[in-house]
Amino acid sequence: MSRDFLWYIPNTVEPGHRGDDTVDGWGSLEFSVEQARLAEQHGWGGALIGTGWGRPDTFTVATALAARTKTFTPLIAIRPGYWQPAHFASAAATLYRLSRGRVFVNIVSGTDDLSAYGDGEFDKSRRYDRTREFLRIVRRLWSEENVTVDGKFWQLQNSTAVPRLPDGERPRLYFGGASAAAEEVAAAEADVQLFWGEPLDGVAERIDRLKVLSDKVGREHAPLQYGLRVTTLIRDTHEEAWSDAEAKVQQMAKSVDPLLTANPRGATGQQRLLDLAARGDVLDSNLYTAPGRYGGGGAGTTWLVGTATEVAESLERYAALGVTHFVLSDTPYAREVVRIGEELLPLLRDG
After folding, report:
1. DSSP assignment string, 217-229
2. How much is the pTM?
């Protein structure tokens, strides 16, 4: 199976995201376009664009980037509850048609500032039920006309999303989440399950479980695929890579609020990453867990550290488990999208 390599565009107004020292132009359209074009020029298929209330609207940014590039495909993070399914199906189909198929979608069920935009669904189990219903409806709207739904969360009457997509064509659906409820949604409705940077044994365990779940929930789609979202810090030598990684963590430790890390809370997947530190600072051959102690959330919680060859060897071990989609990043974004694109991606494409 072919492999996909995506970068990450943070999509924040304020500078300093994960230690990026860029100030001039940060948060502007020009800055985001530069990131997208650098990704396009240096071997990346596209980029995940961050989402959350308090950030610029992700779908609007993705549309602008697709219009300013030729092959770049945005992976657009969206939340059910922020979007109505019919509205989203039409918006995504429109961008898919205008960009000639350059649309990936990352479905996020986790909470942010829900009350700020009028989402009153705070119960975690109901949010996953709603996500599953959302995905079912969106899939139908992309392939059927005059769709009627009498669901638990949405009711539609004779709904037809415009523009219509050619048979068999639609945006690819990515999904994250490590709880039992999240994995049932992925097994039933996602195209790609994204994992954070867990050790190989954790990813292998989850892939096995998702395969069993796919049969249990009666999956009706093509087999679920798997992806990895992780920070990759590469340098010319092993020693330089680890020296820079440790220096970055020391800098993080100076600015973190101890009260925020004393009793970490969050989603199941995030907690799994934070718990890794109890197993050691370095797991497998080069998975660095120390950043998680100092506020490196999400993909910044664990890093793969080393030379391009060492990191490529680690990523190949994930590929051997069945991972074919890679969403990588490091900061400063404008420098590392070039370095990692030129030094790491060719090694992974060669397999």
Report:
1. TT--SSPPEEEEE
2. 0.93
